[in-house]
Amino acid sequence: MINIFKRKKETTKYGWDTLPIKYLPQITRITQSSILSEEDKILRCTALINNIDYDELLNYPLDKTRELIKSVNFLYSEPKNKKLVKNLNLNGKEYYVITDVKDITTAQFIEYNSLMNDVENNLPQLLSLFIIPKGHKYNENYNVKEVVDVINNYLSVEEGISISNFFIKRYRRYVTHTLLYLEVMLWAIKIMNKKELTPTTITMIEKKILELKQIRKETYSLFG
What we know:
Helix content is 54%, strand content 5%. It contains nine helices and three strands. The protein has a three-stranded antiparallel beta sheet with strand order 1-2-3, covered by helices on one side. Helix 1 runs antiparallel to helix 2 and helix 8 (157-192) packs antiparallel against helix 9. The longest helix is centred in the C-terminal third of the chain and has 36 residues, at 157-192. The termini are far apart.
């Protein structure tokens, strides 16, 4: 018997656990905008996630637009912080995640420090420091830019944030330990009244302490 009734096409379901991380900065900019109305934010996120031009979406029949809006309902909930995984399969290729801070090189740490100034817009680049193709060491015999591209397109928001949280917490711990060391050292210098240290050196230490306090404050506003 021929079925003359066609099944209604279901709206594609998205979620933080499937949405590629490349969408996160754009979603953040839209949802945090002080200019856009709440309705416009929803429409722009709907267009973005469904890969539809915003102006095209405005010309869709209302019923179709309502169905598409359902696909972004997950935006009303926060991404879950998953247990850190040590192995990833992205676009058919195997990667491992560095989980031991001892395995991080000086070059990685320097790059990490520079990217921490703007994590939300540099998250794929930051993650590429710790997501390494299997059989390789960081930045050895593979194209880092290609890894960044793979992370952007195939790593989910939840996976990316979970890995980022892991290292942000460890970075925060490092900053706290360094800050404590400098504060104790400065206290000892002033108490012992060491003449060999110039006012310029003391000022540099005080400046570094203020910088670290600001960094520590900022890390608490990040994903971790």
